[in-house]
Design goal:
Helix content is about 35%, strand content about 20%. The chain has helices at about 35-45, 75-85, 105-110, 140-150, 150-160, 165-180, 185-205, 235-240, and strands at about 20, 50-55, 90-95, 110-115, 115-120, 125-130, 210, 220-225, 230, 240-245, 250-255, 260-265. Helix 3 (about 105-110) links the parallel strand 3 (about 90-95) and strand 4. It is α/β, with parallel strands linked by helices and about 270 residues long.
Amino acid sequence: MSSREVPAATADVPPDAAVIVADAHLGHSPDSPSDLAFTRFLHAVPRLGNHLVLAGDLFDFWFEYRSVIPASAFPILSALDTLRARGVRLSVLGGNHDRWGGEFWRTHLGAIFSRDTLEIELAGRRALLHHGDGLAEQHRSAAVMHRITRHPATAFMFRWVHPDVGIWLVRRMSRLLGQSTRDDAVLERARRAQEEYARRMLAQRDDVSLVVLAHTHRPALTEVDAGRWYLNPGSWMTDMRYAIVDRNGPRLEQFGAGGCVADVVT
């Protein structure tokens, strides 16, 4: 077997269960409490499911230069590679903070990667996944940044910026733009708009049983029709939240502060 082949799933990986996590915003420092807790969470994933879905903003910044990746991301990427070796599938969505990915995920981690929308099977159900940015923006700065980050010219120009300068610049912008996302009223309007979007998609697509969105940092689980759901796993960064999708349907969960799986969040 070559180093790039994915080995068969091991006995400790439960079949037909997907683990979904979003909005971790990792990578400021490999020794940060959030990064260390997320590494512990990744070690627990094979006991939870055989498919890990990263639904956007895993990193607070990610850009694939042709021969450079951010050094602070290495511990998380190493843990993901270990999951791959244990037979866990990996699907990755780009978010507004880490959309500029591509071949690295496919070549080095064997992952499915999309900058926008993923349609995949999760525990036997057809699922439509989108990070959520651009779908329900409630303030002008976020709508503008959504258009900027998606424009091909942005990535082309950024590639010519030295990585040390580029990473510093983006982190400065991230802190400034993040102020507007702390407004509870804005987030509540975005939450409602996302659920309306999910309901429309389920009404238009009879073949889809699950719509997954993130971005608002607010967990949500709504059974729109019998056996058909809207799911937002919530934010890892704020509450260490995640979701499980298995044969019984989706559920919201939370990782314990001590590094163990906590009770289901209702």
